[in-house]
Structures are given as C-alpha cells and as structure tokens.
Design a protein that fits this description.
The structure holds 2 protein chains of 2 kinds.
Chain A: H1 6-9, E1 15-17, E2 20-22, H2 24-29, H3 39-45, H4 49-60, H5 68-80, H6 94-105, H7 112-125, H8 134-139, H9 146-159, H10 165-174, H11 178-191
Antiparallel strand pairs in A: 1-2
Chain B: E1 10-12, E2 18-20, E3 28-29, E4 39-43, E5 55-59, E6 81-82, E7 85-86, E8 100-106, E9 114-120, E10 124-128, E11 135-142, E12 148-154, E13 161-168, E14 179-180, E15 195-196, E16 198-203, E17 214-223, E18 241-247, E19 253-261, H1 285-301, E20 305-314, H2 328-332, E21 341-346, E22 356-357, E23 378-381, H3 390-404, H4 444-451
Parallel strand pairs in B: 19-20, 19-21, 21-23
Antiparallel strand pairs in B: 1-2, 3-5, 4-5, 6-7, 8-9, 10-18, 11-17, 12-16, 12-18, 13-14, 13-15, 13-17, 22-23
Helix pairs in contact in B: 1-3
The chains are: A mainly alpha, B mainly beta.
Amino acid sequence: MKIWPIALALFAGSVSAASLELPTNVQLVLTLIDAVPTPSQLDLAFNDHAGAAQGLAAIATDSGAIDAASRSARLHAISALATYCAMPCNELDPAHVALVSIIQNTTAESTGFDAIVLRAAIEALGPQRVGTDLQLLVDQLQNPSRDVRTAVAHSLRDLCNTNAIAPLRQQQQNETSDQVKQAITEALRVLGQAPC
Amino acid sequence: MRAPDCGDGFSCGDDGSCVEATGGEGDTCLSEVQCMPGLACMLSPETHGVDPLTAACTDEYVGHIAGSACSKDLDCRDGTCAMGRCIDLCQDTRDCAAGMVCTHIPRVELGTKMFAGCLQATGTIAWNLPITSPHQTVPLAVPESAQAVSISMRVDDPNQMVGVIRVDGPNPSTTEPLLLYERGVYGNSIRHRPALGQSVLAMPSTPDVTFSAGRYLLEVTSLSGPNYDPTQGDFGTATPIATAVAKLDQNVSLDLHFFFLNLDDHPCAAAFDGGTLDATSAVAGSFKSRFQNTLSSYLAKSDVALGSVTYQDLKDHPDLDGPSLANVNDLLKLGTYSVGINVFFVRSMSPAGVQAFGPNPGPAGLASTDDVSLQSGIIISLDSLCYESWEEVARLTTREIARYMGLYNNVELDGHVDPITDSDALSTNLMYFSEVGGGTELSPDQKLILSRSPVLR
C-alpha cells in the first residue's frame, strides 16, 4: 500500500483562486469532479471544524472567483455549508449568514453562473432548518428560472416548516414547469408527513 | 470452409474437402466432427486424472444446438453447457461454425480442468452465475480467448450491500487469493469493494498481474449495510444476482448513446447553439464540433476509437431533469443499450458542484433492462457550462467513461495511489480526482486496461 503526500506530488505551495488564495489541500478537496467532499475531509483540509466553517463561508461568498476551478470550489463550498451550522442552527451562525447573503445578492439571477450560485445556496439553506428562512425561500418561487424554483421546492421540503405548504400549493396552481411541479408535489408529500 | 458447412458427422479436411466421421458410439473423441451423424462428442463425467478431459462419441441429447442458451449439459444436444452456452468440442477452429473459434474453456463442474470448445470469436458473452443464497462461493469460467471479465452483481434490497469478498485464481499451485476483503481495496491485485445495491468486479484491474484462463472461485455475498463486516460473518439476507460478461476480442471501438433530458430554458443556454440542445440539435453545431469531436480525440489519445453514436431525447422524465446523488439510479435505470455506454445529459446535479456521476466500474455489456444491471450509464451535468468550456466537459466525460470502463482515480484525495504501477499521481493524468490540472494523459498500462473493457466492440 502506497500513500503519497498529495502536496508533494503536485504542488509545492498554494494555488491562486481568484480573489482568495486557497491552500492546496483546500483547493483539491473543493474541486472533486464526481464526489461530494465529506465533513471529515473538509475539516482535515481546513485543519479543524471551526476553520472549515469559517473558510467555507469565505469561499462561498467570494464573488470574485472567475476561473473554472475557483467557481467549482465555490459551488462545493456553498453546498458544504448545509452541514456546517450546528443543530439547532442559529440564524447568526456564519454558515447560515453566508448562505442568506448569497441568496440576497443573487436574488434576481436566472441565467449564467450566478443562477447556479443562487440555486446552490437555496439548496443548502433548507437543511439548516432555520424557521425564519421561510419567506426568503418562498420569494424565490417567483424566480424566472425553473431550476431555481425546483431548488426552492426541495429546500422548503428540507426546511420542514409546514407554513410552506400554503405557498407551495399556490405555486402548484400556477406553475408551468413539470420539473417544478414534481418537486412541489414531493415537498408537499414530505411536509404532509411532518414532523420530518 | 468450416466443418459445420459439411453437415453433421463430417469434418473439413486441410484441402477444404468434407471428410466423413468414423467415430462410433463409445469411441473416444476430441472433436464433434469425429463422431458419426446422430452422435455427439461428449465430455466424460470423470476426469481420469488426465488433461484435457476425455470425451467419447455418445448419442445426442434432445436439446439445443451449439451456441444456444443453457443452464445444464442436458439442455444441449451435444451435451456440454459452459458459460450459459451449448458448446461443441473441437480440435481446431475449422471444426467450429463461421464466427466461432476453438478455444480452451474451463469445465468448472470438474475442478480446474479445461477442454477445447467452440466459442464465438468476437464481441462479448454474458451468462448468469448460479447463486442461490445470500453468501455463496461460485465458480467462474474464464475461457482462453477472454481479454477481460466483468461480474455485475445486484440485490433487490437497496439498503443491503453486495459484492465479492474473495477471489481464488485458476492456478492450483497458487493458494494466495487474488482478492481478500480484509486486505482492503488497495491490498489486492483485483480492485473491488462491495457497494449498496449494486457492484461490479472487473478483472484484470491492472496488467501487473497476469490474467489467465481457467476456473476462478468467487465468494459472493450480500451485507446488511455499510457497517457490517463479512470477516465477522455479518452477511446479509438478500440473494445476489450476478452476471458475468467476458470480452472475447481485441476490438477497441466504443459506442456512445447520448440521452438528453429536458434542457429547455437552461441557465447556461448561452453555450447551446440558438439556446437549444436536444437530440436533433446535437448532431451538429457546438455539441458536435466542440464536445463530441473533443471527446473523440481524448478517446483516441487513450487508444479507444469512438464507434457509432446515437442521440435520444428523454423529455418525459421531469423529476430526473436535475437529479440528486440520491436518485441517480432512477435515471441510470433508463440506460437501455447494452453495447457501449449510455450517457445522460442533465440540467444540473445536486448538490451543486458535482459535475458528473457514474458507477466505477460500470456494468459493462449490460443494459438496465438486463436482469442484473441497475446503473447502466454515466450522467453529465450541463450546468458546468456556466463556468466550463465544452472542451472541458468533454474531458470530464472522457474521465467518467474511463471510470465506467474499469480505471480508477490515479490518486485519491487521501493520497492512496492506484495499484497500476506505471501510472503516476500527477494532475496531468486523466484519472486525477480533481479538476485542477485538466489532465488528459494515461499511462500505457491504464490504456491497456481500457482496451480490455467489455464495453468495447
């Protein structure tokens, strides 16, 4: 069994990632192609859990990431924040604040990379289960992008707040996308069985 | 000219003439063509301690002709069933029908002995392994003409794991197992781990270990979950279903079957010609010139030739337009082609950041409609096009195809290196786990493993 230190095999120093200078291990763990970095992998890359939470929040909100690898790292960081707010998640927790900030800053986006960022943040917000996020998410049911609206339905499902049932039902009446309708139906099914 | 062209009871002489057989009932024989009409050259049930197995001209059974599917010898007119096919005994390829070759095949029922039989010369052959309990050791016949073998296993309970925990090779003088679960994934010459619902064991995993014909013994089991240890006897309750697929030629042509989910109003539609991408528009424009041609060049660089390509829309599965990793199986169940690889282009994947998914390795040579296969294909997320080029998406797709065909990451995030000894741990390698580096290189041995994949035709 051979174990090669990746840093030695690849790069000696850190890697430039747009406006943030990411350490090599962080860059690598956040650019997996076909896998999701686990919390233990992230904690290791950032040295510890607290460092990971702080670092992920910084990368997630770094809108200066322009090159492909940095943008990929940003998406992974946003997704990872879903599990970096200790339950019960406090709305002032940095992992939560970062996601809310991203949504507020990209709220009008429906195309391009920013729409992907918005979708990622919406998807990650629901699992944190902060009740006050309900309206922030419900507002995005009007986003022109059906990918964003689908993400909202999934996120409201994960938020597990039965107050989402009414706006979801209303959206179901008016929704034109089959993809979104399916996601709403799934969310209503789960919420109907609350507590989740 | 082949002997079967002369009719039953004749061989084909060196000069192409038909020669009447003289073997009567009870006479020893080596080939079907030595026995008179109405008789078949059948293997003796006894080994007599000799190799190859002895055979005698015997009254034909009422059964299927050579090449037909079978589960036991009695199913076959000529009395020999191997690898799920009725087999005629032979001495020379001239004894076999056109398109067949005379090759050595293990007689797994009688230990490690081999006999010479007619087998299809090209393509792949698939057969089911006779597994009747959750934990069982089954023999696997690997014919001399096989370049590689892939064993696809599944259990009906998606919460149980399935896989092989021990493989003993065909060499009776070597007692060391080729695979032993407790050695870990990097400690075996065959790389494999049981997985939830479905797993695939592909041999060989590395050219460093000689892949030889003969009878292999596979200890196949289900496990009740990821935390159960088979070395402690923690076996599952589900009975595995397993299919073996052997590649019998050296062809390196890869067919790809492109499936397009509903990509209308895509956030990255700026990368599509006219904002649209579907089975109709994909045959030309950017998809063809930038994605498919780049993919073809990356494959060629890996010594694989792009074969035929098909295009198909999947517009009536809105729930799968943007699958999450939790429901990718629902999409891969739609992989209907057994030859080549099914490639699904989706709007996005969840969680965001995941750009592709595919089983590693995949169930080569099997479609989702085949009994054993669940995950037949790979998935490519096109929201990558909001920050990646078509050429980079082609590179990622090539990498996912290579994983499906039996290559693994050249190095893992934790530093473990793939056992293929001539591959490096550099980011310039196609199989690098991260998109940093943009690698497109493969080592000669990595290419060799690819060239043996049963997905090739």
